[in-house]
Specification:
4-stranded antiparallel β-sheet, alpha+beta, Jelly Rolls, 6-stranded antiparallel β-sheet, about 300 residues
Amino acid sequence: MPTAYNLARQIGFYRLFAKGINMNPYQLSDEQKTFYHENGYLIGLPAIYTPEEMRQVNAELPNILALLRPDETAKDIREWHETSQYLYDLCMNPKIHDLVEGILGPNFYLWASSFFIKEPFSKATVGWHQDAYYWPMKPHNSVTVWLAYDDVDEENGGMMIIPGSHRAGLLQHTRQDGTDSILTLQLENGTFNEADAVQFKLKAGEVTLHDDRAAHGSPANPSSRRRAGLTMRYSGTNVKNDMSVNPNFKTYLCRGVDEYRLNPVGVPPTERYGRPSFRAVSVEEAGPEAEEVHQSGSM
């Protein structure tokens, strides 16, 4: 027999459904969608993982880091979801897909993942940039999900973003060597007003979403706390990769159908931890000539 409390709760749920109120906290509201399209990002979203779940996620991270070669860093863990069930499962979390679907619509795929880890007292920064400049992909219809492995704030080098910067389209980047940034392709000084930046603050297990053209970056980590995050990249099925720049590109359908069939399709991994036999290639690694993909009208 149901208790009076449970019965009342069920009746309440039915009334909410009858009124069309969304009961899924990971399904974006119209207000959230409008904010994203106007500002290029979303924060303050419900946690994907509980603290206990994140402890388990973090407990497995050393198994991935152990696969790095002596001359590599965590930045080299790119597209390892293709060979690691550990990462693939994180990227295929239905809660994350619910959030992404609110931006990209019902048909989208996963194609990239990478770590950004700043150890305590690290001087490494992430220079101001737009993700889309690194990707030989068109049209621009992609979302980056940033999963916090640690609590993140201004003290340990949390990400900052320029609201509305995505509406300016793709901006010119220059190759800058000899800086503390782990990225060499960066926006030039004066492209935007850094005072307009919004500081991201997250608890471990929470995520942010940002547009592939949103200008963002992060400072060094002078604190005694690690700042680790996993980025997961999703694109609508209408987005095509230039295989001449990134020949190892593969898609993993997350929701809906791939009605365009523009890109190679990957096979889900069977090992818990593994590294690909290839090195991921973006416009950064492909060289200055690869930047011409942003000048051409089609691929």
